[in-house]
């Protein structure tokens, strides 16, 4: 079967973009279909489009929306590399940054120059994201001077605003009902954690409580340390009601996301650039599908920014917000978020990304699926 597909980079992620009409008409076949085209399960994803990394094993399913005030409906899929699993439970902010450009290029929205605003409903979280995309001569502008850590070169800026991101997956900003939970780990120690749900659920732990500095780079995490962190994340998944501790790695591998925080200090990023404590509000290290994230997930930055404005979480110990900008030091560099406040409440959080189309063509599946187009 030959299916139209677009491969796009969005922020520090890369994924396969599909029009919903080309997906299997039977929704129960979506997981099998996405595993098929991505080449999973296989650590190399040698027989599909996946890039053998959680940041490049992603898919976006897009359709024009008939909902008033919404332009595009977008479903995110995290395709497991080594397991027979596709996780639809959360969103990806980086992939979200390419949804607006995809919709414009595919003629799904009306173009307005020089800036087209695309209102996107993420169906995973039922939250609205507004993407502001630069347009020139009716096409998405890709050239520009905007740079983001973790992506070589520069491009045209895409402004993403996440509105009312709280309770994206669980319906509550504190999934357990508590700003801090005391968790007994597999090693028998008891540590404070904060589980916060905004854009995606994250479980925050202090670096010092898990024997880390907070300045570590991805290659610095040993297999033993990753197993320890996954034990904590799995226990948090159970507290959220996503899966039992024993089944969390298999059934809920993507959320909550393990997030290690530490006070500002000087550190060297993955390309050898030194960042100074004075330029950072918080050090952050995230896990993605049980592996260290090379940079920082956008939804992670949104959730961390939200948590920074809450009282009594463990972030309150190290992060004091002094305005509407939050600066997060991650392995790839420093990410800034900007907060829109109305009467002391966060109405939206904005980040800047770049994105571009890499390939447009067709993917050949290993078996036949009936799509909405074929059935029509």
Q: CATH homologous superfamily of the largest domain?
A: Diaminopimelate Epimerase, Chain A, domain 1
Helix content: 10-25%
The CATH architecture assignment of the largest domain turns out to be Roll
Q: In angstroms, what separates the terminal alpha carbons?
A: 17 Å
How many domains, as an integer? 2
Rg (CA only): 20 Å
The percentage of residues in β strands lies in 35-45%
Count every beta strand, where a strand is a DSSP E run of 2 or more residues: 21
Mean pLDDT: 96
Description:
- By secondary structure, this protein is an alpha+beta fold.
- The protein has two domains: 176 residues, Roll (Diaminopimelate Epimerase, Chain A, domain 1); 156 residues, Roll (Diaminopimelate Epimerase, Chain A, domain 1).
- The strands form two sheets. The protein has a 19-stranded mixed beta sheet that branches. A two-stranded antiparallel ribbon has the order 14-15.
- Strand 3 and strand 4 form a beta hairpin.
- The longest helix has 18 residues.
- The mean pLDDT is 96.
Give the key terms.
single chain; 376 residues; alpha+beta; 2 domains; two-stranded antiparallel sheet; globular
Provide a quick synopsis of the model.
Helix content is 15%, strand content 35%. The protein has 376 residues and is of the alpha+beta class. It is globular.
Topology at a glance:
Elements: E1 2-10, E2 13-19, H1 30-38, E3 58-64, E4 72-79, E5 86-87, H2 93-96, H3 99-105, E6 115-122, E7 127-136, E8 139-140, E9 158-163, E10 181-184, E11 190-198, E12 200-206, H4 223-240, H5 248-251, E13 257-262, E14 267-268, E15 274-275, E16 282-288, E17 291-292, H6 298-308, E18 325-330, E19 333-342, E20 345-353, E21 355-364, H7 372-375
Parallel strand pairs: 2-3, 4-6, 12-13, 16-18
Antiparallel strand pairs: 1-2, 1-21, 3-4, 4-5, 6-7, 7-8, 7-9, 9-20, 10-11, 11-12, 13-16, 14-15, 16-17, 18-19, 19-20
């Amino acid at each position: 079967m030959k299916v139209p597909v677009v491969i796009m980079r969005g922020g520090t992620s890369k994924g396969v973009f599909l029009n919903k009409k080309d997906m299997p008409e039977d929704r129960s076949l979506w997981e099998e279909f996405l595993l098929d085209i991505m080449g999973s399960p296989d650590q190399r994803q040698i027989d599909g489009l996946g890039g053998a990394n959680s940041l490049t094993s992603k898919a976006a399913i897009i359709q024009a929306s008939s909902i008033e005030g919404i332009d595009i409906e977008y479903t995110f899929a995290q395709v497991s590399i080594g397991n027979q699993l596709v996780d639809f439970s959360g969103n990806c902010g980086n992939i979200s940054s390419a949804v607006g450009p995809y919709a414009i290029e595919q003629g799904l929205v009306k173009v307005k120059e020089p800036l087209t605003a695309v209102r996107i409903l993420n169906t995973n979280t039922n939250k609205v994201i507004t993407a502001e995309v630069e347009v020139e001569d009716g096409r998405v502008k890709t050239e520009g001077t905007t740079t983001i850590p973790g992506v070589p070169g520069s491009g045209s800026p895409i402004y993403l605003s996440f509105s009312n991101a709280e309770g994206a997956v669980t319906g509550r900003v504190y999934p357990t009902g508590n700003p801090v939970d005391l968790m007994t780990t597999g090693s028998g120690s008891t540590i404070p954690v904060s589980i916060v749900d905004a854009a995606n659920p994250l479980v925050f732990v202090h670096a010092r409580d898990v024997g880390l500095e907070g300045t570590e780079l991805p290659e610095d995490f040993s297999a033993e340390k990753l197993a320890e962190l996954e034990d904590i994340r799995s226990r948090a998944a159970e507290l959220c009601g996503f899966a039992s501790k024993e089944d969390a790695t298999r059934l809920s591998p993507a959320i909550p996301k393990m997030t290690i925080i530490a006070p500002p200090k000087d550190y060297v990023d993955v390309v050898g650039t030194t960042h100074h404590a004075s330029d950072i509000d918080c050090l952050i290290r995230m896990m993605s599908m049980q592996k260290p994230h090379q940079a920082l997930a956008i939804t992670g930055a949104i959730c961390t920014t939200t948590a920074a404005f809450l009282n009594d979480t463990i972030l309150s110990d190290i992060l004091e917000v002094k305005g509407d900008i939050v600066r997060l030091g991650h392995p790839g560099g420093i990410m800034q978020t900007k907060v829109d406040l109305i009467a002391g409440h966060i109405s939206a959080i904005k980040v800047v990304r770049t994105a571009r189309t890499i390939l447009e063509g067709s993917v050949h599946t290993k078996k036949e699926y009936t799509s909405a187009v074929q059935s029509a």
